[in-house]
Amino acid sequence: MERAFQTALWLLQPEVVFILGDVFDEGKWSSSQAWADDVGRFWKIFRHPPHVQLRAVAGNHDIGFHYQMNTYKIKRFEKVFNPERLFSWKGINFCVPGTQLPADSTGGPWLISCPCLSFVMINSVALEGDSCDICSGAEAELLEISHRLNCSREQEHRPQECGDRQRLPASAPILLQHFPLYRRNDANCSGKDAAPPDEKYTPFKERYDALSQEASRKLLWWLRPRLVLSGHTHSACEVLHGAGVLEVSVPSFSWRNRNNPSFIMGSVTPTEYALAKCYLPCEDTVLTTYCTAAGGLVLLTLVHAGLVASPFHFGWNMLRKFKTT
Fold first, then answer.
1. For helices 2-12 and 32-45, what crossing angle results, to 10°?
2. How far apart are CA 218 and CA 204, in angstroms?
3. Strand positions, DSSP E, the chain
4. Are strands 237-241 and 245-249 parallel, antiparallel or unpaired?
5. Which of 42, 81, 237, 291 could serve as 56's disulfide partner, Cβ 3.0–4.6 Å?
6. Do residues 258 and 233 lie in contact, with contact meaning Cβ atoms separated by under 8 Å?
7. What are the backbone dihedrals phi and psi of residue 92, each rounded to the nearest 5 degrees, phi first?
8. CB atoms within 10 A of CB 61
9. Sheet with strand 174-176: strands edge to edge
10. Using alpha carbons only, what angle is made at residue 174 by residues 278 and 48, rounded to the nearest 5 degrees?
11. How is residue 254 annotated by DSSP?
């Protein structure tokens, strides 16, 4: 992951990197010391120059599923990935391996705003819909973001309804979250990094494999995004929701979950976006290369030590013998 990420930074030169959750494997269980060690390891792997922004949304492995989530775990995550209140570009290039209304103890959404672009970063674990304190706070912040976005879209027609709210870009936002929006399964997903055939038709469990139908409808209705980027399933998928809103589920960036990890490279303007998938080397290809190189080095060492006849001399002797015959 470190080599792939550093190469991607050098080659693609993104302005923003979004990580769509599950930054850590055992964040939901980690002690304070283990968490600090993991954070240090993360910043070593995903180090980046100051001009590159890195943003992350929380996943179930970072703060636990809803029944494991608590204020302490959310604050601990946000202490590491607490973005600036506002940062701006006219257009951005970004990599995905997912201004904020500052995320408080509710773990609510982060709203990242550029002069022409808006990204809404959701704590999808908090969209359980059971009216717990964390979930209620997250929904309240989503509604506030929705109002601000709608005011920006309609400020020319109904400016009196928006009062003194700070204006946001009028373009539709891009939604970034860990859990995908509701879908029955991955049956309609295709591509070499889609779910394997024996898993495609396994039904998704709401609030575990994907958001509930209710939470998905709320996000689409309140925020009216033009694009949704999600993770969690470890496999790729593209789904059209509602009035043609595209959701792209981004696969794992690690060999642990699949042989062919990948990430999304994107370029966004106020009215358009372009996405391309970038693949990391396949694990079996790298291992085969290492084994071949190691075998070659062992053979050279044995030849140099005189324990094995040189293939060159052996071939030359065989050729001379053939010519003599």
1. 40
2. 19
3. 16-19, 53-56, 92-96, 110-113, 118-121, 174-176, 227-230, 237-241, 245-249, 262-268, 273-279
4. antiparallel
5. 81
6. no
7. -135, 155
8. 18
9. 110-113, 118-121, 174-176, 227-230, 245-249, 237-241
10. 50
11. S
What are the φ/ψ torsions at residue 63 (nearest 5 degrees)? Answer: -130, 0
Q: If we measure between CA atoms, which residue out of 141, 136, 112, 118 comes closest to residue 126?
A: 136
Coil, strand or helix at 29:
coil
Tokens coding 231? 């993770």
Distance between CA atoms of residues 74 and 103, nearest Å: 9
Instruction: Name the one residue in this structure whose structure tokens are 């599923």.
Output: 65
User: For each of the chain's 325 residues, which pLDDT tens digit applies?
Assistant: 999 999 999 999 999 999 999 999 888 999 999 999 999 999 999 999 999 989 899 999 999 999 999 999 999 998 998 654 333 344 455 566 644 444 455 566 666 655 577 888 899 999 999 989 999 988 988 888 888 888 877 765 565 666 665 666 677 889 999 999 999 999 999 989 999 999 999 999 999 999 999 999 999 999 999 999 999 999 999 999 988 999 999 999 988 888 999 999 999 888 889 999 999 989 899 999 999 999 999 988 887 777 766 666 655 566 666 666 5
Measured CA to CA, the distance from residue 266 to residue 262 in angstroms comes to 13
Contact 120, 173 (CB under 8 A): yes
Report the chain's C-alpha Rg in angstroms.
25
Residue 88 identity: S
pTM, two decimals, is: 0.83
What distance in Å separates the CA atoms of residue 295 and residue 120, rounded to the nearest whole number?
Answer: 51
Residue type, position 34, single letter: A
Task: Let me know: does 88 contact 99? Beta carbons within 8 Å.
Answer: no
Judged by DSSP in three states, 198 sits in helix
The residue to which tokens 């970038």 are assigned: 278
